[in-house]
Amino acid sequence: MGKAKRQSHLLDTLNKTMADPAYIPESLADVPRHRWPRHIAMIMDGNGRWAQARGLPRIEGHRRGAETVRLITEECARLALAQLTLFAFSSENWRRPREEVDFLMELYRLHLIQERPTILKNNIRFRTIGRREGIPAEVLAEVDRTIEMSAGSTGMTLCLAVNYGGRQEIADAARRLAAEAARGSLDPAAINDETFARALDTAGMPDPDLLIRTAGEMRLSNFLLWQTSYAEIWVTETLWPDFREPNLWAAMHDFSKRERRFGALKPDAAD
Ligand code: FPP
Asked: Which tens digits make up the pLDDT trace of 35-60?
């Protein structure tokens, strides 16, 4: 069997959606579905503190954090969210000790290999945002393989932000548009927020409705600066390795009570 055929066979056997429209966790039973977020973005913070509190090396916190990634990804797919975006590695994280950076890169590589069946089984489409430069070739190879193998999935999009920085993404988009304008294929007067959004890494993705940050800090840390303009922010003291499904449901419940006006006076007519 050829490579493409083998992959499509694998997809056929595994690509049965686990998203169940009847699945509603008890704590969301009183929330109408249209008040659930469609796209949740997460800043997964506190791995280091989790490890430190137990007298373990920081990398142990990242290892446990990867287990949380699997649990939460599967739960979001089961809830049939449109997208989950996870901040895995920022453009500033290169400043960490070499051993920690190397460990994280290897963790991503192994995670992709290990979790590919989970991704396919849950009908998840995998994508990434962030600059490819600097990421080891063997990690990029697994990223590309996962993108390719999950391209036919029709369920939730799992987007991993790796070597990602919001300002860098905006500057890259501006450079791309400027180059098009210089070539004469784009009229500068035609640049508006829609054309700009199409030049970002997140082109074609919906903006996040809800941004969850673990480990207590109240900041964006250069994550999705453009895309979070109207996102609701929910911060928990819980450290990422301890974050579980009930924490996610609590965030979704809280989100459902927010009045989203998008700058207007009245909430959405659907409410
Ligand atoms: C922040 O914790 C977390 C990161 C810099 C990386 C996030 C990585 C994971 C959750 C591991 C696995 C991810 C995948 C996708 C397999 P921190 O080290 O800044 O914690 P601290 O603020 O307590 O030091």
From this structure: 999 999 999 999 999 999 999 999 99
Spacing, Cα 144 to ligand 1 middle (Å): 22
Q: What is the CATH number of the domain that holds 240?
A: 3.40.1180.10
Q: With contact defined as beta carbons under 8 Å apart, do 155 and 123 qualify? A: yes
The answer to whether residue 93 is catalytic is yes
Instruction: Locate all alpha helices (DSSP H) within the chain, ordered by sequence.
Output: 3-14, 47-52, 58-78, 98-121, 137-149, 166-183, 193-198, 245-256
Laid out side by side, the sheet with 125-129 consists of 125-129, 157-164, 83-90, 39-43, 210-213, 232-235
Kindly report, residue by residue over 211-261, the tens digit of the pLDDT.
Answer: 999 999 999 999 999 999 999 999 999 999 999 999 999 999 999 999 888
Atom 10 in ligand 1: residue holding the nearest Cα: 65
Question: Could you tell me if the CB of 42 is within 6 A of ligand 1?
Answer: no
Closest CA to 212 of 236, 241, 243, 230: 236
CA dist 150 and 148 (Å) reads 6
Distance from Cα 224 to the centre of ligand 1, integer Å? 17
pTM: 0.91
Q: What b/e sequence results for 156-166 when a residue is b if at least 16 CB atoms lie within 10 Å of its CB, and e otherwise? A: bbbbbbbbbbb
Domain that holds residue 245: 33-165+208-254
Residue nearest to atom 1 of ligand 1 (CA): 45
Residue 56 within any structural domain of the chain: yes
Q: Is there a catalytic annotation at residue 12?
A: no
With a 6 A CB cut-off, is 65 part of the ligand 1 pocket? yes
